[in-house]
């Protein structure tokens, strides 16, 4: 009996002297904020929350949730639930800009709550969230959630320019096409091409982290971006052979390759968590977003039409349609280049290479997106 009492007593002393319990809450919140912002998947953070009562209490602190990084919300569409929705709402009210954008995309496209979705995206965009700005520009260009007359090209260009200024590659490319074609803005072919070169160079540079880029919109030639890289340009035939060998089915994912406009291989970027969610969400519905509606043909996008004939189609074949020029450019390099035009009529050198203005292959092949 005495020995048991002594044991309990010594156990209490041990608990009291636990150094973890001695840490002030502020310090624990600071550590949890770091974990929350650098989590590579939702389970990283969930496993912290369930590890002890103190982490569970402090982990849901507003300060911690406000720091949530994009990958924390990489929820699988099949795991979507009311509790996942509640957690996202909690992060939104804590001020997480990533949660605003992620939930905005889900509400707009998946839950078809257009007003709430667009306003959440706008909330993120106001805080200079580049993907949110770009997504809002796509909404404006397409008049998504409204009628054809709701298209506002000038607003689309203005928002796109803001995202481009922040270095968003698809926005730079979109803006380049707008300027080149005089779409929603006064035509300026030279400036448009300069932006297309910049988008391609940034895409290439992102595959080679050692290459440093100048600040956005510099007036420099593309050769300055390729510093030290020895790139081999492949012919169209070589590209097709290597793509079908390295990337059967031309699906997305690590290990897959994307042909840069300079004719060299760069890895295909992983879809962002919100795009992955949309892909899975509509994939569960057999890729059918509703009667008369189509999905964006770029397999890494996942955006559906919100009204029939909303997206623009490829003018060369008319068989594919895209939410944006960014998606068209990705899909062209990934697979459509070989599906759109018969191989026999490929020109040998349609690709504008380094030092030749870097013309987008989609343009060189006469493959433009037009309103359907
Ligand atoms: Zn798209
Ligand atoms: Zn086509």
UniProtKB/TrEMBL annotation:
Source organism, top-level taxon: Eukaryota
GO MF annotation terms: zinc ion binding
Protein name: MYND-type domain-containing protein
Domain MYND-type stretches: 298-340
Keywords: Metal-binding, Zinc, Zinc-finger
PROSITE patterns in the cross-refs: ZF_MYND_2 (PS50865)
């Amino acid at each position: 009996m005495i020995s048991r009492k002594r044991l309990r007593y010594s156990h209490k002393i041990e608990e009291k002297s636990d150094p973890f319990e001695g840490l002030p809450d502020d310090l624990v919140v600071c550590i949890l904020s770091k974990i929350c912002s650098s989590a590579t998947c939702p389970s990283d953070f969930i496993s912290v929350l369930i590890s002890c009562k103190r982490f569970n209490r402090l982990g849901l602190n507003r300060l911690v949730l406000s720091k949530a990084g994009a990958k924390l919300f990489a929820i699988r569409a099949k795991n979507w639930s009311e509790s996942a929705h509640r957690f996202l709402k909690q992060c939104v009210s804590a001020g997480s800009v990533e949660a605003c954008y992620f939930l905005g995309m889900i509400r707009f496209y998946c839950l078809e709550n257009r007003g709430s979705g667009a306003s959440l995206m706008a909330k993120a965009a106001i805080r200079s969230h580049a993907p949110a700005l770009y997504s809002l520009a796509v909404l404006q260009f397409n008049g998504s959630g409204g009628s054809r007359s709701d298209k506002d090209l000038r607003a689309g260009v203005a928002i796109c320019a803001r995202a481009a200024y922040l270095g968003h590659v698809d926005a730079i490319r979109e803006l380049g096409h707008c300027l080149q074609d005089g779409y929603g803005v006064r035509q300026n072919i030279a400036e448009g091409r300069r932006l297309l070169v910049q988008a391609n160079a940034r895409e290439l540079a992102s595959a080679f982290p050692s290459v440093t880029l100048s600040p956005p919109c510099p007036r420099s030639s593309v050769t300055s971006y390729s510093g030290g890289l020895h790139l081999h340009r492949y012919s169209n035939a070589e590209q097709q052979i290597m793509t079908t060998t390295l990337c059967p089915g031309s699906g997305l994912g690590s290990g897959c390759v994307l042909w840069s406009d300079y004719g060299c291989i760069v890895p295909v970027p992983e879809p962002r968590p919100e795009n992955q969610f949309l892909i899975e969400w509509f994939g569960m519905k057999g890729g059918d977003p509703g009667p008369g509606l189509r999905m964006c043909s770029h397999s890494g996008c996942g955006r559906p039409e919100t009204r029939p004939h909303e997206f623009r189609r490829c003018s060369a074949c008319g068989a594919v349609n895209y939410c944006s020029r960014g998606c068209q450019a990705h899909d062209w390099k990934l697979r459509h280049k070989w599906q759109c035009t018969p191989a026999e009529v490929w020109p040998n050198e349609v690709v504008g290479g380094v030092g030749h203005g870097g013309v987008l292959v989609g343009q060189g092949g006469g493959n433009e997106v037009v309103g359907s």
